[in-house]
Write a structure and sequence with these properties.
Elements lengths: L2 H25 L9 H27 L2 H6 L2 H24 L6 H9 L5 H12 L8 H33 L9 E3 L7 E3 L1 H16 L13 H14 L13 H15 L8 H14 L1 H7 L7 H11 L2 H12 L11 H28 L7 H9 L8 H9 L3 H30 L1
Antiparallel strand pairs: 1-2
Pfam families: Mem_trans
GO biological process, one term: endoplasmic reticulum to cytosol auxin transport
Keywords: Auxin signaling pathway, Endoplasmic reticulum, Membrane, Transmembrane, Transmembrane helix, Transport
Length: 432
């Protein structure tokens, strides 16, 4: 296949996504107001609690078996690498550009979390259905591609709501003060200053074991520096404690650090609806008796699977419309400078794809990935995708950087029209 034919194959699914996104943007205009703030809020809840879990569970149950799960073992590792590499590059970016503290989590999250869900579910089947597709029979390609995209979406959702969510949470500092937002979506939560948290934990430990001693004061370390050092130390494997300057045993320092991180992490969000749906879908798909009971034309309880699948089909258009509607805020003014916008694009569309090629080619060379060209294409594509749509939801939960996130996402998806098409074309050429 020539470059032009490959370019057209790669362009079609991207254009479909952008058209639906443009429709969402139009519906959110003040003169139309079909997808206004209230409507987006309710639709977002439907997508988060109903549509996406239904899509994840039904697709995994239908396409993933125990044998295919073993075959695709490298995909979760590859997705984890995309998050780790992206967050590392994002952390370097905020340091180089001296990004405002309350935007650190947003920028790092935008660099780390790629759209591993609905975009792949649009792109892969569309590529398979093209007459000039390099992946052979369209039926087999679509079946395998749906399995790859479904697993990618499920694993990506787990990492977003465990890894990225807690990064944004750690940096979730309101612009009015250096406080960590402890807001829980279920109970309204509370706001606890990081310094008061660490001081209370430290004083409690010292008073318990050394009630006769006078604890020495903690050095004055700015809250934003503590967050930066804690995050950087977790990435580099160093054991940093904000209270390391106090003369307490190492065991106490470790205990204090664990308490602080336990306070920061919202364990409930680790079991978000999409995460639970992933567990259910994998359990059904990998367990033969359950699979025979629910999946297939002759399954006695197939109506449950078909109903779930029908609900899940609404996820992709609804989520894409929400992204378009949220991009309307990106047309307004924000604190995000041109350097941050360009930096995120460089990370997501230049640095990440180049590093992804090295990772996937190394995996192929050492026999970690089979010879399936479609599988290799999906692994490569996971490094070249725009920012995950869930970043908008996460910033709304913490009420930090919502408009700034919209600006970054607006440019991210605008640049994706060209960047994603070009990288997809190159990937198609390299694996065909």
């Amino acid at each position: 296949m020539g470059f032009l034919a490959l370019f057209i194959v790669a362009l079609m699914p991207v254009l479909k996504t952008l058209i639906v996104t443009a429709v969402g943007l139009f519906l959110a205009l003040e003169k139309v107001d079909i997808l206004g703030a209230t409507a987006r809020h309710h639709l977002n809840n439907l997508v988060f609690f109903v549509f996406t879990p239904a899509l994840v569970s039904s697709n995994l149950a239908e396409t993933i078996t125990m044998s295919s799960l073993i075959k695709l073992w490298f995909m979760p590792v590859n997705i984890l690498l995309t998050f780790l590499i992206g967050s590392a590059l994002g952390w370097v970016l905020v340091k180089v550009l001296r990004t405002p503290q309350h935007l650190h989590g947003l920028v790092i999250g935008c660099c780390a979390a790629g759209n591993l869900g609905n975009l792949l579910l649009i792109i892969i089947p569309a590529v398979c259905e093209e007459n000039d597709s390099p992946f052979g029979d369209s039926s087999t390609c679509s079946t395998n591609g749906e399995a790859y995209a479904s697993l990618s979406m499920a694993i990506g959702a787990v990492f977003i709501w465990t890894y990225v969510y807690n990064i944004v949470r750690a940096y979730g500092i309101r612009s009015t003060g250096s406080t960590i937002n402890r807001t829980n979506s279920a109970n309204g939560g509370e706001i606890v200053t990081e310094s008061s948290l660490e001081e209370s934990l430290l004083s409690k430990d010292i008073e318990t074991d050394h009630s006769h001693d006078t604890p020495q004061p903690i050095d004055s370390i700015e809250n934003d520096e503590k967050v930066d050092l804690l995050f950087s130390s977790s990435m580099h494997g160093t054991n940093f404690s904000a209270s390391s300057c106090t003369r307490v045993p190492m065991r106490k320092k470790i205990k204090q650090q664990l308490k602080i991180w336990a306070e920061r992490m919202n364990l409930k969000m680790m079991f978000a609806p999409s995460t639970i749906a992933t567990i259910v879908g994998l359990a059904i798909g990998a367990t033969s008796p359950l699979r025979k009971l629910l999946i297939g034309d002759s399954a006695p309880l197939r109506v449950i699977d078909t109903s779930t699948s029908m609900i899940g089909d609404a996820s992709i258009p609804a989520m894409t419309l929400i992204v378009g509607a949220n991009l309307l805020k990106g047309l307004q003014r924000s604190e995000v400078g041109l350097g941050i916008i360009i930096g995120v694009q460089v990370v997501r569309y230049i640095a990440m794809p180049l590093l992804g090629i090295l990772v996937v080619k190394a995996a192929v060379h050492f026999g970690l990935v089979g010879s399936d060209s479609l599988y290799q294409f999906v692994l490569l594509l996971q490094y070249a995708l725009p920012t995950a749509m869930s970043m908008g939801t996460i910033t709304q939960l913490f009420e930090v950087g919502e408009r700034d996130c919209s600006v970054i996402m607006l440019w991210n998806y605008a640049v994706a029209a060209l960047a994603l098409t070009l990288w997809s074309t190159y990937y198609l050429w390299s694996v065909s």
